Predict the 3D structure of the following.
Amino acid sequence: MLDIARLVIQIAVIVGAARLVGFVFRKIRQPQVMGEMVAGILLGPSLLGWVAPHASAALFPTSSLSSLSALSQVGLVLYMFLVGMGINPGELKKQGHAAVLTSHVSITAPFVMATLLALYLYPRLSDNTVSFTSFALFMGSAMSITAFPVLARILTDRNMLHSRLGTVAISCAAVDDVTGWCVLAYIVVLVRAAKDATPVWVTVAGLLVFILVMVCAVRPVLARLATIYQRNRDLSDGLLAAVVLFLLASAYLTEKLGIHVLFGAFLAGAVMPKDEDFVRYIFSKLQFVPVVVLLPLFFALTGLRTSIYVMRGPGMWTYCVAIIAVAIVGKLGGSMIAARITGMPTRDAAGLGILMNTRGLMELVILNIGRDIGVISPALFSMMVLMALITTFMTTPLLEFIYPTRLIVLDSAPIRAQDKKAPMSAAAS
Amino acid sequence: MLSASNRRFVLGYVLLVGLPLLGLIGNLRLGQKLNAPIAVDGAWDVAAISSANGDCTESLAANRNLAFVISQSGRNLVVSSSADPLGSVDGQIEGQVVTTAPLDLSAGTNTKDRCHDAKLSITASISSAKPAVMAGELSVDGCAYCRPVRFTAVKRLPNDQTEKR
């Protein structure tokens, strides 16, 4: 039976902790979302469960986690819709060969290095219910992701969003995310197909048909929303409700197809109109509850699953260091080398590598999916969470060191009103 | 005929994207030869405890809902029991053998029981024919009187498990 009083207390504690720690992190010039992620970890067995296990067990008894989990998943569904809305294929097409090569190398380099690392980790951190292929592809996908929303936030804070470096970084991050999610969808299909009777090809075919319908049939219809908005500078509550119903239907369908609700939510956002004012309007209507209230619940649940305790022993920390090293070398190094080869100046290339190394929230989403489908073990989950936090935390200070504010120059890219934030960066604040 | 710029792009793409993808295929093929430890993650219900040890086993035998929960990360295990849900100990799985550090498994209700406040180590093996069944011994550390107690445990089905963190 739902203990509503406990649920209310849980939400209050989590949201309060998220805002408090987020405030502290903003003071040290880190994104708010970084603080919220850390707050979630602190509420779990790594701190609260360690110093006050009975209080932790009283606040977060196992029986209460299903309600919290359901709310956090709703928040994630809404958030992934916003992430999808923030990705604009039109902008990607404008980028030249250099950006295409850089973005693809920023995926393949960490991906391949991660599968190499998987050869070492699989016999040590996995079990025989997980195939090596699923494990290695998951590691590759998790290592090659970039936190598109957090990246947008960092670029906005440093007034770099419309610089050449910022434009290339955002484009590369968008390509990375879309590719990473496609690979993850395939992994989910593989793992779930191994557990039920549905052949893989049926699920893949169903997904492809669904994507075709969304892109070719649904997207043109949705374009009318932008037209209505441009005419009235507003959408009625009925139309906004229709948008929400659409994203929920898309999420439901991909879950039923055997993928995951989040893919449907992301796809729904991706096929929405990309008019900047329209996107900003939808963000203003939809982002508060998921970003301020529900996402911290997700961070707390991630924290409850993360335990430094399971990483005891010298072997475990060796694996953890290896994961962090491969993540940084693959992503930062790969992106930087690709950017240099395409002719980008060394400082800009280093800056791009640093930005692409930001993994943030998107990494946590992928890791939780991996944990849910059983591809990664508790210790590996904790190590990867630590990797996500470290690689995200290092972005701002490294960027300040390599690309200090005084060197930021807005180049020939169109300059928008300086006070306008990119919608996606607001979602990560 | 490709321009110099396009030639550089194609060459760069082949070297920096194409070759690594070939490496990826090679890694995936290589990994097929690897073996991961047997899965023992989950809740295990203790099905039977031999009573040959007399005083040492009464509290264990009296606890009809005795279970231990294993959280597995490869060869490394974290084990807790229904008798002490907040406590946990380290364990290992090597091949088909599970071993743990001393764990509180007793109900502690029978004060005559020489094991009522003792912790017991698990040494058990998993049959490859029946991976959902574990059979082994519970050993009382530091108690010369108590000989190891034999037990069997059955893995609870996933639908019966409590919320997995």
Notes: The interface with chain A takes residues 5-6, 9, 12-13, 16-17, 20-21, 23-24, 27-28, 30-32, 34-41, 71-76, 78, 85-86, 88, 90, 162-163, 165 of chain B (CB under 8 Å). The CA atoms of residues 126 and 134 of chain B lie 5 Å apart. The first helix of chain B runs from residue 4 to 31. The helical segments of chain B are 4-31, 58-62.
